[in-house]
Amino acid sequence: MRGQGGTAQGVLTALALALLSVIVAAPFLFILAQAIFPKIGAGSFAGPFSAMADVLGSGQLPRATLNTLIMGVGTVAVSAALAVPLAAIRALYRLPGAALWDLVFLVPFMIPPYIATLGWVMTGQPRGYLEQLTGQNIAGLLFSVPGIVIILGLHCFPVVYFALSRSFATIGGRFADVSRVFGAGPLRAFWRVTLPLALPGLAASLILVFAMAIEEYGTPAVLGTRIGFRVLVTGIDEAIGDWPVDLPGAATLALVLVGLATVAYLAQRRFVAKGGFETTGARPLSATRRPLGQATVPALLLFACVAFVSTGVPLLAVLATALAKTVSGGLAPGNLGLQNFAAVFAAGSSAREALVTSLSLGLVAALATGALGAFSAFVVVRTRARGRVAVDLLAALPNAAPGVVVALGMILLWNQPWWPVTPYNTLSILVLAYVLLLLPQPVRYTTAALAQIAPSLDAAARVAGASELAMARRILLPLIFPHLMVAMLLVFVVAARELVASLLILPVGHQTIATYIWRQFDQGSVGLGMAMALVTIGLTTLLPLAVLVAARRTEDIG
Amino acid sequence: MKKLFVATVALAAGLSANAASADITVYTAGPAKLIENLSVGFTAKTGIKVDVFQATTGKVMARLEAEAANPVADVVISASWDTATTMAEEGKLLPYTSPNAAHVPDFLKTDTAVAQGISALAIAWNPASGLPKPTDWEDLAAPAYKDMVTLPDPAKSGSMFELVAALDGALGAKIFDDLSANGAIIAGANADALNPVMQGAKAAVFGAVDYISMAAAAKGESVEVIFPASGTVIAARPAMILQSAKQPEEAKQFIDYMLSEEGQEMVAATYLMPARTDVAAKRPRIDELKLLAFDQAAAYGARAETLKAFAKSFGN
């Protein structure tokens, strides 16, 4: 029986390796090749390592690397400080309007960082909306390194909030109850029992935030340029946006980024391996939430404050800009109107076309990424085949691939003349890019979920005579599905508004939501761009919400 | 679940079946509205469809370089004449002289490229700022403009680079030291520099692309375009046919259409100067502007040094 299981595991691992090799490894290899052989785009292997030497020889690299680390760690700190208390309250106590708060905290994640940053700039700069309303501006804080990490933290913290409130809820009050029976106070019980048990989930989500932050482009580009704060990603963008173009230089900087994330990832693995954290026993859990009592009002105030700063301010700024007839006119009532929305929804407008394209791309990308991610996670966590470490590494590799470099990898790989058929210059190249960019999401969510399922469930299934496949389908899949679905919704949202990669590999004759918005900014039609942004934020919030509601209803009936 | 699967497969099939059925492919710098209008007009006239990739000049060039082994574009329109010079030297361009180029002045055409339109750099000033109206570049380094000036990044804007190179020659690099000491900031690409001025956070853009600011003013934004007394630089936008074009004849027809009176009127409608002298412009033309002396070959030869010195002025 063991031998049979081993063979099946070997086949599954080989299949995962084959898929990941084509989708993930090949573009990375071509980026590596571009970094080493500067002329490979024209089919030549001349001058190996010459471009790498140029980049490493310039003094920019250490500073950009240090700044990238500052941005990553700062964002992690802000996200954790915001998310841990909120998630604990949400998961362990009966918070009034809990589901509504979940919805509200989906929104900051739904606001593309470059849009949120622009909203903050329109609000906080001198003569911005804040000054028009209160006479004060926050330009000093906004255009600073703390300003950058706060805005990124406000964007990223929902990732931690959702992962952690799930972990906390899975752990439930039960273990904490036990510790309190033994005399621990509520804080001590949380600090010594609940939080340590949730560490795998916390670590996984914080690493995800770190990876998101170090590959973020819009925020450091808009705010950092003014204060000379250059990071690796903006360096890569300059290497590509500059004429003459420096693809080998960009590829070299990207390799440094990949290196950073790989180190972070390995550190996380070691950390997770240290603690035992199986909390889903064979017996079903009844989630017991405590009443908040006197703490209800302060808790609600905390939620409201974080919601207002992370969601209210950028959304209101986007709305004000979308409604304004002219930017100069500001918040004056006579300056407001719906003309930008009318332009977005005009029959046959390119905005409408872009909406349909992006939403379809998001759906296909979510299903494809979810399937591949769950499969990879299963192979990593549940098989003992030798190739699983490679699967794990490949599935984590995209974490530090800035969109712009993934796009280059896709072009370098799929635009070769020797392919008989190629996805290049069709919308499928965007799907491939999104899968590559977002694969870590379902992998991390399902890995964390699988790691919390005790192997005793497998054993029980085997004893009951279930095959490995039946066990995966009937026991593991239902248990991980809620986590997987959240991950797929995240993929949908991010893919539907992805900017940087889309710009570079956009098939001719098509537009996505983000490229449309970006073009409006580029043309100075800020209001039209913000109107489209608002429509997008609405759609990408409401569609996943509808899915979640439908799923909950099904659960209730079942 | 099964229905969802079927729907997904159908959707995926639809996505991959979109392969370009158009006849020519154009890679172009902005404005988006211009290439949209040109494409629609061209298709109406010839029945040839146009597939468009529109991005900044830098991104268009990045895509061309990445596709070097398997080029896709037939026509390239950039916002920097230097790209035409470089690509011609590399032998990437197909020689073509459109009959409609007869009305385009000689300095705006070569064997392999012809201007679509021309922009100039200027000061974009917000009259609501309450600050004295500037008349020359140096006015923006005056104490009245302390912390109130933005500049496009010359590393991101080709025309801004040419202005920096020209001003280095005409006024010396001191102007940038003075601006920096006066609190002026580098604000990314062209639109990033203009946006704070429209809202009033800043009072003026040093080196704004004129047609973008003029279009904003026409929309009612509080922005005025001022051409400085000591002169400025222009940026002609070269249109080129690639040597690797799969549809060279249709590409030539597109260039002809772009240079037709109809096409040039579309160019003029965006507040660019049309390349043809016999088509009316909605704004001052080259002969009404004072130009700084500018040696393109020398400037681009020293590009890296110029950018480094500029960055040093601003403490980067």
UniProtKB/TrEMBL annotation, chain A:
It comes from the Bacteria. Its main location: membrane. Gene3D superfamilies: MetI-like. The chain crosses the membrane at residues 12-37, 69-93, 100-121, 141-164, 189-214, 247-267, 299-324, 359-381, 393-415, 421-439, 475-493, 530-551. SUPFAM superfamilies: MetI-like. Keywords: Cell inner membrane, Cell membrane, Membrane, Transmembrane, Transmembrane helix, Transport. It is found in: Cell inner membrane; Cell membrane. Pfam families: BPD_transp_1. GO terms for biological process: transmembrane transport. Residues 65-268, 355-549 form the ABC transmembrane type-1 domain. PANTHER family: FE(3+)-TRANSPORT SYSTEM PERMEASE PROTEIN FBPB 2, INNER MEMBRANE ABC TRANSPORTER PERMEASE PROTEIN YDCV. This is Iron(III) transport system permease protein. The lineage of its organism: Bacteria, Pseudomonadati, Pseudomonadota, Alphaproteobacteria, Rhodobacterales.
UniProtKB/TrEMBL annotation, chain B:
Gene3D superfamilies: Periplasmic binding protein-like II. One of its GO terms (biological process) is thiamine transport. Keywords: Iron, Metal-binding, Signal. Pfam families: SBP_bac_6. One of its GO terms (cellular component) is outer membrane-bounded periplasmic space. CDD domains: PBP2_Fbp_like_2. It comes from the Bacteria. Residues 1-22 form the signal peptide. Fe cation binds at Y211. GO terms for molecular function: metal ion binding; thiamine binding; thiamine pyrophosphate binding. This is Iron(III) transport system substrate-binding protein. It comes from Rhodobacter maris.
